[in-house]
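ingest -> validate -> predict -> emit
validate: passed (alphabet ok, no gaps, 245 aa)
predict: started
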Amino acid sequence: MYEKPPVTMNSPKLRENLRARGFSRRTAAVLAMLIFAFLVVSIVQFAVRFGSSVSEQMDAPTEDSIALPYYELTADEQAAVDATGEYLSALKEDPSSSDLAAELAGWFEASLRQDLRHTPEDLGIDAKAWAGQMASRLTYSIEDVELSGDVATVGMRVWAPQAGEIVSEASKGMNTYFYNQGVRDGEPLSEDLQEDVLRTFETATESAPVEERLLDIALTRSEDGFAVDERSLERDLLNAFEAVV
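emit:
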C-alpha cells in the first residue's frame, strides 16, 4: 500500500509553502535546504552536548574505593594508603567544618563579589554550607602507592563538581535580573529575591559537570605513622573543584 511520505524540512511540502509566500522555485529550494541544514546542525550539537554531559555523570563513581591489590602491599605501603583514606573519610564525614570547606567558602565569596558584586550573606546563601555540600560530593579511588625512605606518595583519582561552572552558570542573567529588580551593588536582597537566587544556585549546583583529576598525595612518616601533607592536598583538591583565582 502506498504511504504518504513524511513532511521533512527538505520536503516538497516545505518548498510549496515557501513558493506560496512569493519565493521563486529556485529560492524556495535553496531556503528549504538551508533550513534543513540548520536543523541537522542544531540536533547534532544538542546530541553532542547531551551525550557529553551524560558520559561525564555516568563515569563518575558514587562510592570511594581502593583500586589496587591492597593485601599484596607491604605493611608500610598499607599504612600510607590507610592514612590517606582515613584523612579523606574524616573530611567527608564532617565536610562543613573542614579546612577545605573554609577555603572553598572563601573562594565562593570572592567569586560572588566579583561576578555579582554581592556577598553570599547579601544573597541569603550560607557559603560554608554550600562548600560542605561540594566537599561531600567528592569521590576518590586510590590507585597507586610508592615509598622512598620516610616519604610516601599515594596516587589517587578524584571526581569533583566544578565550582567555577556553578558560579558562572548561576551568574548568567542574574546581573540583568538584579538591574530589572532595582537591586544596587552590595545591597542585601529581599526574602523573595533571595529565594529566586537560592533556586538558581541550587539548580546550578545540582547540574554542575563532574571532572576527573589525577593527584599525587604526599605523606611523611613520623613516630605516629604516616601523615598527609594537608596543605598540599587542600590546594590539589581546590584545583580539582576548579576553585582557583
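The two ends are 67 Å apart (CA to CA).
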